[in-house]
Amino acid sequence: MPSTIRELCNVIEKLDPPIKPRLRVAAREEEIRSAENSLGLAFPEELKHFLLCHDGQDFYSSASGYGDPLIPMMRQPANGKGYSHYWMCGVKEIVECTVSYRDDLDCFQDERFETIGPARYHDQFIVFTNTENADCLVIDLLPEPGGVVGQVVLFSTQWPELIVLAPDLETFLQSLTADYRKGRFQHSPCEYFVSYVES
């Protein structure tokens, strides 16, 4: 994971304009264990490794405003519409966002989620991104047959969708690096942060 994060940071620093993700220092192992206990589940190794490198991003502060989102807006195949930008959560935000997701479970039990890939709506997701809209990226601990425990899934309620993006967090970050490098994402001016969207 450290080399994956370094490579991603090297690529985004060379963009025009560069992305400055404001990654935090590493989380402590006891913080991760406490979060797992609070949620009653074990984090996949890739998520632990990420948090032991960086405890997420500084999403917003009153002193310096928004940090630049590490994960750009991506149009997904289900409807071709744009989704949110995503900031990586730290340990504290993972707990808060996952608890909030669980609190809303009853609201969407009767929704029919369009799915792309082996996923379904359930209570065994770990929310690992902050966003400005009503969708997020989650780690799926209870995939459908053919899926992988720890797969990265886009969860949307605006258009009820679940879209499997990668088999694990590290593969997702590696794919993101490759997509930035080959120009999949273009700068889109935004007054609050450096914004990239799928071209």
Tell me the layout of helices and strands.
Elements: H1 2-13, H2 29-39, H3 45-53, E1 60-61, E2 65-66, E3 86-88, H4 91-103, H5 105-108, E4 114-116, E5 125-127, E6 129-131, E7 135-140, E8 151-156, E9 161-166, H6 169-181, E10 185-187, E11 196-198
Parallel strand pairs: 4-9
Antiparallel strand pairs: 1-2, 3-6, 5-7, 7-8, 8-9, 10-11
Helix pairs in contact: 1-6, 2-4
Overall SS class: alpha+beta
**Numbering strands along the chain, what is their spatial order in the largest sheet?**
4-9-8-7-5
Radius of gyration: 16 Å
Average pLDDT over all residues? 90
Question: Total number of β-strand segments?
Answer: 11
**Uncertain stretches:** none
Major sheet attributes: 5 strands, mixed
Q: So how many helices?
A: 6
Query: What is the overall silhouette?
Result: globular
The run of helices and strands is: HHHEEEHHEEEEEEHEE
Amount of beta strand: 15-25%
Helix content: 25-40%
End-to-end span in angstroms? Answer: 28 Å
Write structural notes for this entry.
It is a single chain. With 199 residues, the chain is an alpha+beta fold. The protein has six helices and eleven strands. The mean pLDDT is 90.
